[in-house]
Amino acid sequence: MSGFASAAIACQALVQRDVRAVLRSRSQLYSSLLMPLGLLAILGAGVSDGLDPAAVRDGDYASFLVPGIIVMTALFSSTFSSASFYYDRDWGVLKVLFASPHSPRVILFGKSLAGMLIGSLQALAVLLVAALVPAIDLDWQYGVVPGALLAAAAILLLAVFLNGFAQVVASRIRTMQGFHLVMNLVLFPLLFFSGAFFPLDELPVWLKVLAVVDPLSYAVDALRAAIYLDGSGYFGLALDFAVLATLGPAIFAWGIRRQPQLDW
User: Fold this and answer.
1) Cα(252)–Cα(164) distance, rounded to whole angstroms?
2) Under a CB-based contact definition with an 8 Å cutoff, are residues 206 and 180 in contact?
3) What's the DSSP call for residue 25?
4) Per-residue pLDDT for 226 more than 80?
5) pLDDT at residue 46 above 50?
6) Interatomic CA distance for residues 37 and 41, integer angstroms
7) Are 157 and 244 in contact (CB under 8 A)?
8) Residue 259 falls in which region: left (phi positive, over 0), alpha (psi -120 to 50) or beta
9) Residues 237-244, mean pLDDT to the nearest whole number
10) How far apart are CA 151 and CA 105, in angstroms?
11) Between 92 and 159, whose confidence is greater?
């Protein structure tokens, strides 16, 4: 058996292991889906009915919120999935895996693939539910199938970036508590600056500058152009995918190269 085939089988086994762990953890599975959908229903309906925001299409804030909620779902899922690194380390599983004939990069790549798959599927599940809700009006300016494919591509590239960043953090932070602290400290401001919850057009200049340097802004903008807007979006699809396709693999490759320390 060739080295590539052996590494592929190892990655497949790691992906299956982590996916089964999520499926067995019903509380994590349900909360990761129900919390974004609940936020979409409560916040979207509350703002649409109570504040009547003129800055969004037809004052329909719930529909405007869908791309941001999808990005938030991918972000939370990547954080939770990457936390399994600490369980495996504390229970000695990583030592066993690293003692296998496969290189540490193959092991980390397999675990990161599992996180990408879980995050992408959960984000797509939120998109599917939102598309089926009659009260949510998605425009699908490119058509349902092309729009869904564009949305899936943006979600996948976002998952690559998020899991790569999580691997960079996990390889250097000693405790799970510290990992969640750093992830929340970095990713939550990025989520709020991305335009996930408000349009970027009417923001002050300093907030627009933060949005431009925020990687999540391009994922939100790509999703909004694919499923919600009747136009090219704030940055444009070409720039959105150029940034995501460049930054995501670069951060992912950096995370895979950083072998974690197993003993502290």
Assistant:
1) 4
2) no
3) -
4) yes
5) no
6) 6
7) yes
8) beta
9) 94
10) 29
11) 159
CA-atom Rg of the chain in angstroms:
19
**Per-state percent for the chain, helix, strand, coil, to nearest 5:** 75, 0, 25
Indicate the SS3 state at residue 230.
coil
Tokens of 122: 């959960």
Burial class (CB in 10 A: 0-12, 13-18, 19+), 4: exposed
Nearest alpha-carbon partner for 157 in 258, 66, 78, 256: 78
pTM value?
0.80
Output DSSP code: residue 260. P
Of 42-51, 53-62, 249-258, highest mean pLDDT: 249-258
Is the pLDDT reported for residue 50 higher than 50? no
Q: How close are the terminal C-alpha atoms of the chain, in Å?
A: 36
Q: What is the spatial distance between Cα 115 and Cα 18, in angstroms, rounded to a whole number?
A: 8
Reference 104, options 116, 87, 88, 80; nearest CA is 88
Residue at 111: amino acid letter: K
Structure tokens at 119: 């995050």
Q: Identify the residue whose tokens are 């060739």.
A: 2
Name the one residue in this structure whose structure tokens are 């869904």: 148
List pLDDT tens digits, range 67-79.
998 998 888 887 7
